[in-house]
Structure formats: C-alpha cells, structure tokens
Specification:
Elements: H1 16-35, H2 40-69, H3 76-85, H4 93-134, H5 138-174
Helix pairs in contact: 1-2, 4-5
Amino acid sequence: MGSQGHGQVQRWQDRWWAVGLLVLVVWVGIRLAFDGWSGWPGILVGGLVYAGFMTWLVMRRRRRDARAVGTDAARVPELERRIARNGELPEDPAEQAAMIRLIRRREEKLRRNRWWAFPLLALLFFGIPVLWFASGNVGAGLWGLAFGAAFLGWMVWFNRRFVRRMAGMRERIEGVGGGLVTGPVAGPVTGPAGGRAAGPVTGPAGGAEGVAPGAR
C-alpha cells in the first residue's frame, strides 16, 4: 500500500534526514546551553553520533510498524498524526484497517511499557541534576530540574491525550458495538431476502482484529 498510490506525498519532516537534523539541532542546542561554546567540536561530534543512532531507531520502528499493520513505512507518520489529532479518517478501507491495527499496537505497547518507562525517565531527568548539584554546578542543576519537570509533565499530558484520541478514533472506525466501517454506505444493507442484514459490516481485513500479511 504505497503512499503515492493513495495520492499522498510524504511530508519533508517525516523523511529520515529531517528526523536526524531535528535530533542534531536539539542535542547541540541543549549541550551548548549547559556547557557553553568552548567545547563545541566535541558537542557537534557527539550530536552527529546521537542523531545517527536516533534516526536509525525511528526508521527501524516505522518499518516494523508498517510490516505489522500492513502499510508502507512512509504512511506510518501520517496515520499517527491523524490518530493524535483525532483527524480525518482514511477513505481507503484497507488504510482504515491498518489504522485500527496501528492503534491496537500502540495501546498494547503503552500497557506493556507503562510500569518502567516513566520511572526511568524520572530517574534520568531528576538524577542528572542531583549530580550537577553534588559537583557544585547549581545553575545547571536548577535548569535541569526545571526542564525535567516540564518535560515529564508534558509527557504525562500528551500520553493521556493520545490514549483518549486513540480510543476515539477506534470507535469512529469500528462503530460503537459494530464491526470495522469500510466506507460510506449510501443506504441500508440488505440481505438475500430483501430484508435488513443481521450483522455488522466488516472490511476485507476481517475487522479490527485482522492481521496483516507477514505480520506474524
């Protein structure tokens, strides 16, 4: 299911070089703010290494998600944006099925990683300022504490909002108590005897629990 086949053009910020550039700018900016310009060559080299690693990690995650849900890696960021904004549903029934599988994959990962991810982030963002305080660098310690508190607060807020919007998007596609909606229906669905069909309308992927080819 290619992005061009759906009339979609991949945004420049979703490309690998844009991801790497963003990580590099953020890393170098934070390090320069704390350490000053005197050590900029080492900061730049470390930023390039870190940006390369993070870019590889993000692209690897996209490829795995794409294989698991049955779409192209280039489409994963767009589907995630639509989920996060509770935005427009894909018109293609196959993409709706892929979005449902992506939502379920994200929900499962959140449930599995919730017990260790936030405690680890808290230890990282509050433990490093403690080391700065211990070494006598009070200014860096205060900045680190403020940044850590703001970032963790944002993470909690964003996580809760994303969970709510995933559930809302899933309900919009599946229908409350129904099967996967594959597209607009112009009139009532009738059975072979001319009466109303007795069951939910499901898509070719077998509903929300359909598994993409090669996902197992």
